[in-house]
Automatic annotation (TrEMBL), chains A, B:
UniProt keywords, alphabetically: Hydrolase, Metal-binding, Zinc
Assigned protein family: Belongs to the peptidase M20 family.
Molecular functions (GO terms): hydrolase activity, acting on carbon-nitrogen (but not peptide) bonds, in linear amidines; metal ion binding
Keyword Hydrolase: yes
Metal-binding among keywords: yes
UniProt name for this protein: Allantoate amidohydrolase
Cofactor(s) needed for function: Zn(2+)
UniProt xrefs under NCBIfam families: hydantase, PRK09290.1-5
Chain positions recorded as Zn(2+) 2 binding sites: 95, 130, 384
UniProt xrefs under InterPro entries: Amidase_Cbmase, Bact_exopeptidase_dim_dom, Peptidase_M20, Peptidase_M20_dimer
UniProt remark on cofactor binding: Binds 2 Zn(2+) ions per subunit.
């Protein structure tokens, strides 16, 4: 990389994004799964690029990669920024990799323009977030925040039967023990594509995330009576699909009444016996319900369960609702969100405060430290697909906002930048 | 079989039913598919039993088997009674076989008790009705009534790739040319299990069928937009499953409003991509709509299509509705239905007039000749299953009613029994 200042940080970042996209298993889009060769090459590439860029490059035993700019100040705390390097199968170039490329580029830029910071800054490429190889998610940030202690790796197997432990040991980058959780993070900032259609639909450049929505997922089983479609009068039926259909319409109506940011979805549905001339005897369907407020989320789910039970009773079918996943909402730091809004205003960028409906590494940091997320638009909301896309000027806008926030957190007087010791209880009231 | 009169016709029929049930491919229930060894054995068994019972036994080139009692009268017409000998895969003992066993038993009984009839009576075991081996139905009665001319057999293949023609030729019972349609049938009477729950639910012994319902079947394709379940606000969705659910609820409501005998069913539904955290982009579902009145059926279907299009438009999804099957209603002969009601009254049996929601061989005879169907209860409405069952006393009641009607049609003065030359146009007004 040349020493010239002609290349803007945006151009450097976009070049880095393209280089990362090349580290992929063969096939459409980008496939870069935890501890695979493409993954190792990408992380090794980042280590080398960080080193060459003047950052202190290192990795931990889970395979997370860091580029560190030591601060001249003395509180020993770190401002961390980045995202995850892994992808889904046949994913896009931007999901995770954008935040990684932006983080490493931002630090290199700040270092070259302003010299060493007062507070230590670190760019991170988390090893894994998507759960696309092994049946767990956030393996990278989860090890850093103490969600995992390493014992999970023993019995967790991929589709070929290899354990996470074996794959971890086999990777020259990772070790065979999990790293200790970090307690030196003063703030975590993550830049990410929206993976939704709101920014594009409203013509807005930047999303300032107020919270990552909590999630509840359920499996619903409706059991009626299968019977002959021709010979069973309507009034004598216990049609499991008609019952499920009424529940789905009811859920949609309730979600509309609850208003944003409540979202409720039935994504998967199976009918038994699924034959044109047989009244369905059994239906299974899923619920995916999200809200940024834990109480509202809980209340909505309880009301939905009640409503489904009433429908089932009226129709003479049985309904069983099993909870499958429960993730609490993760509020972002108000001080940092406020600072982001100020930055957008100063930079003349349109922005909106919004809830992140998708989960991110940031949700693991939110209970532990001051956390912020910045969104850029996703074309047509497409993600987890080779069609994933954000125009270069929007990618550049996100980088500019990130750089400004990192400057605030890393280079301004420690007493003035609001990063006083973090009190978790205060932030939750 | 002994010459003794000690065995009632009911006991003889039930024994015959058990003997027929033994002719099956291995496995649960009864599997007796067209032109398979089990099928050939059953038809050959019937030929032998008919001969031994004093009937003139013969088969046609499609493999239909007959037992004939020549009448002493001179109009050359035949009163035909029977049903189909084939089954679905893993079916029950009664569907079709009951009508066959009853027909052959009734003729043997009438012959022994009353001697030769005035009008020729024939019991028939139709070769095929279910469509469970080859992709067509009513191969037996369809050849007799002229629905098929034999050309269909050339290109029609089973799951193993064998053509109907090859299978027909390979069966020692059938020939290689289709038989000519018959024009000598003065009346057709079919005794059958209800395959529904109405008789059992209302505690009624006999169903006098007023008509076989017409059927319309459709494939409905709804296309919306697949999107992230977490990041897409409710108001910006084009959820194909929510749209389909509303259509299904609407169809059920309309069917209830229309009242009996209208039945409307969505039996099969498929969601794409069918993933819990993705808003469904596409749904395919089937419609099976039946009514005994052709105009009502048509009007209901047209209204349903209209309603679906309105729902789709309102939701910003597209809907495509393709007709898959269309069968006209088949009214039964009023004179014969009236006679059946009188017989039930005389025999002290509870009965109700009802529409047959399922298709039967009788529907092919209805446009051509005076046709009647008699139902007996099905336990829990179960059919097409090893669990299919009707208690012996109900089977016996059906046989008694059939015997009484055959006596009326075969042994009473030809001028008094109402079987004047058949005028199709009259019967339809």
């Amino acid at each position: 990389m040349s020493e010239s200042f002609i290349q803007s940080p945006a151009a450097e970042m976009i070049e880095l994004l393209e280089e990362l996209a090349a580290f992929s298993a063969p096939g459409e889009g980008v496939t870069r799964l935890l501890y695979t060769p493409a993954w190792k090459q990408a992380q090794q590439f980042l280590l080398n690029r960080a080193e060459a860029g003047g950052l202190k490059a290192y990795s931990d035993s889970a395979g997370n990669v860091y580029g560190r700019l030591d601060g001249t100040g003395s509180d020993g705390k770190v401002v961390l920024t980045g995202s995850h390097i892994d992808t889904v199968v046949r994913g896009g170039k931007y999901d995770g990799a954008y935040g990684v490329a932006a983080a490493f580029t931002a630090l290199r830029y700040l270092s070259r323009v302003y010299g060493p910071p007062l507070r230590t800054l670190e760019a991170v490429s988390f090893a894994e977030e998507e759960g696309s190889r092994f049946p767990l998610t956030f393996w990278g940030s989860g090890n850093v925040t103490g969600l995992y202690d390493g014992s999970e790796a023993e019995n967790c197997r991929d589709a070929e039967g290899m354990t996470l432990r074996e794959a971890m040991t086999g990777s020259s980058l990772a070790g065979d023990k999990s790293p200790a959780p970090r307690d030196d993070i003063a703030a975590y900032v993550e830049l990410h594509i929206e993976q939704g259609i709101v920014l594009e639909r409203t013509g807005t450049q930047i999303g300032v995330v107020s919270a990552i929505a909590g999630q509840r997922r359920f499996a619903v089983s409706v059991k009626g009576t299968a019977n002959h479609a021709g010979t069973t009068p309507m009034g004598l039926r216990h049609d499991a699909l008609a019952a499920a259909a009424e529940m789905i319409v009811q859920l949609e109506h309730s979600a509309a009444e609850a208003g944003e940011p409540l979202v409720a979805t039935t994504g998967r549905l199976e009918v038994y016996p699924n034959t044109p001339n047989v009244i369905p005897g059994e239906v299974m369907f899923t619920l995916d319900i999200r809200h940024s407020d834990g109480n509202e989320l809980e209340a909505f789910c309880a009301a939905a369960v009640s409503a489904f039970e009433e429908i089932a009773k009226r129709r003479g079918v049985t309904v069983n609702i099993t909870a499958r996943l429960s993730a609490s909402p993760a509020p972002m730091d108000r001080g940092l969100s406020g600072e982001l809004e100020s930055i957008c205003t100063r930079q003349g960028r349109t922005y909106r405060t919004m809830v992140s409906g998708a989960g991110h590494d940031a949700q693991l940091f939110a209970p532990l430290t001051r956390t912020a997320m910045i969104f850029v638009p996703s074309r047509a909301g497409i993600s987890h697909s080779p069609e994933e896309y954000t125009p270069p000027e929007e990618l550049a806008a996100g980088l500019d906002v990130l750089i400004a926030l990192l400057y605030k957190l890393g280079y301004e007087d420690l007493n003035d930048n609001g990063l006083t010791p973090h009190n978790t209880k205060e932030r939750w009231t």
